[in-house]
Specification:
The chain is an alpha+beta fold and 202 residues long. The protein is built from 5 helices and 14 strands. The strands form 4 sheets. The protein has a 7-stranded mixed beta sheet. A 3-stranded antiparallel beta sheet has the order 1-2-10. A hairpin with an 8-residue loop joins strand 1 and strand 2. Helix 1 crosses helix 3. It is globular and about 45 Å long.
């Protein structure tokens, strides 16, 4: 395994051919809460400051929804252009359950769960059935998800031919993973950097 991994919190450190076990969301949120930074600002989403504790609550709820729909380590969660805050929560929630985010705003986007914007707001689509984001989040808050064990060589997200690995997102990889695809911005939460494709404003 290449790169510097000293800034990464591992569940099981890599050794030899073993890539180790970690979780990107744990590194971005949980570890900061554990270390006493719960009330520090983690991110500004849609004009509102979110502390690490608040963002962790929202992400764990969204992750609970993904888990309830059978999303597991290595499964694909697809989503297109959605409001910035929704996108950040979705990426972190997918990372929490170990899923791979596929950025795809086409009508044919596929994944165990597809998160997309509609004229009525954001929906989660599962097997062709749409669930409004607010309804899903209320359900998720009743059974939030913990952090899955994710291999250290796992992929965090894809967009076309571009791939962002978990270690690349944590700044612990030598490869070119921090290149930002056209149309995306780079978001950082708790040391985890990932892409955001926001819905047009207005």
């Amino acid at each position: 395994m290449t790169g510097q991994t000293t800034g990464v919190t591992w569940f099981r450190a890599p050794t030899g051919d073993d890539p180790g076990i970690l979780n990107a969301c744990y590194n971005a949120l949980d570890i900061h809460v554990v270390r006493g930074r719960a009330d520090d600002v983690a991110a500004q989403l849609d004009g509102t400051q979110h502390t690490f504790a608040r963002l962790l609550t929202e992400v764990a709820a969204c992750a609970g929804v993904l888990r309830a729909f059978g999303v597991d380590v290595g499964d694909q969660v697809a989503f297109g252009a959605v409001p910035h805050g929704t996108g950040v929560v979705t990426v972190l929630a997918a990372a929490r359950v170990g899923a791979v985010v596929q950025y795809d705003d086409s009508p044919g986007a596929t994944g165990k769960v597809v998160v997309r914007g509609t004229t009525d707001g954001v929906v989660l689509s599962v097997e062709g059935e749409d669930l409004p984001w607010d309804v899903a989040m209320r359900a998720g808050r009743t059974d939030p998800a913990g952090c899955a064990d994710v291999p250290g060589d796992a992929v965090l997200s894809r967009h076309g031919d571009d791939t962002l690995t978990v270690l690349g997102a944590l700044g612990a990889s030598d490869d070119q993973n921090l290149q930002v695809p056209a149309g995306a911005t780079l978001v950082e939460v708790g040391g985890l950097r990932f892409w955001s494709f926001d819905a047009p404003q207005g």
